[in-house]
Amino acid sequence: MKYCINCGNQLNGEKFCPKCGAAVETETEKAPESTSAGGNGAIKKVILGVAVIAVVVVVCVLFSGRSYKKVVKDYMKATMKADSEKLVSLLPDSMVDCIIDDDYDGDRDEMMDDIDDTLDDIDEQLYSYGVKTSDISYKIKDAKDMSDDDIHDLEKEYRKAKIKIKKAKKVEVEITIPQNDKKNSTTVEIGIAKIGRSWYLIDFDF
């Protein structure tokens, strides 16, 4: 039942009030605004944001490559565990191929045997002094960028491998070996180069 908003007269569907002549406003019931659309929009934004972050993380993982500190860590770990395969994996593939061709007449197994023998010798020497490789520690003392001339010399040395070095570092590593309740330290220098997106061993000694 409706009433005239001007005079209060009861109305029966008229467009104008029969008593005062005022126009009758037609009230349309408005459905309450649904929050689902806005809610769904917010959820979609969150999902999109998560997706973007996930893509960024994946891209960073795929394209950031291996850091020079990771190379040093893997080099020390491979040496102490006599893991020749891991050690070789730290070298540029083209460099490994050249070493095999030039020094081992294309025989990869012979190269790996040679590396295994060297690593075994290190292990035996340590054992003879009562040293466990698990007790050996190391830390990076210094890392200096190589000059353009040094990089050029490295590329020239390994020109057959056709490596293009973006950056190179001489990393000074202090190795501490416990023996007879004492700690003996020695320092080694490792040459590491950035080729493409990753760092590799390029000049080192066992």
What does this structure look like?
- The chain has helices at residues 36-64, 68-80, 84-89, 93-103, 108-128, 148-157, and strands at residues 2-3, 10-11, 137-145, 167-179, 182-195, 198-203.
- With 206 residues, the chain is an alpha+beta fold.
- The strands form two sheets. A four-stranded antiparallel sheet has the order 3-4-5-6.
- Strand 1 (2-3) and strand 2 (10-11) form a beta hairpin.
Summarize the structure.
This protein is α+β, with helices and mostly antiparallel strands and 206 residues long. It is built from six helices and six strands; from the N terminus they run E-E-H-H-H-H-H-E-H-E-E-E.
Low-confidence runs: 28-37, 51-64
* Outline type: elongated
Which strand order spans the largest sheet, edge to edge or round the barrel? 3-4-5-6
The rounded Rg comes to: 37 Å
Beta-strand content? 15-25%
**H/E element order:** EEHHHHHEHEEE
Instruction: Determine the number of helices (DSSP H or I, runs of at least 4 residues).
Output: 6
Total strand count, please? 6
Bin the helical content.
Answer: 40-55%
The SS-based structural class is alpha+beta
Biggest sheet overview: 4 strands, antiparallel
Termini Cα gap: 100 Å
Mean pLDDT: 77
Keywords:
alpha+beta, two-stranded antiparallel ribbon
Write the layout of secondary structure elements.
Elements: E1 2-3, E2 10-11, H1 36-64, H2 68-80, H3 84-89, H4 93-103, H5 108-128, E3 137-145, H6 148-157, E4 167-179, E5 182-195, E6 198-203
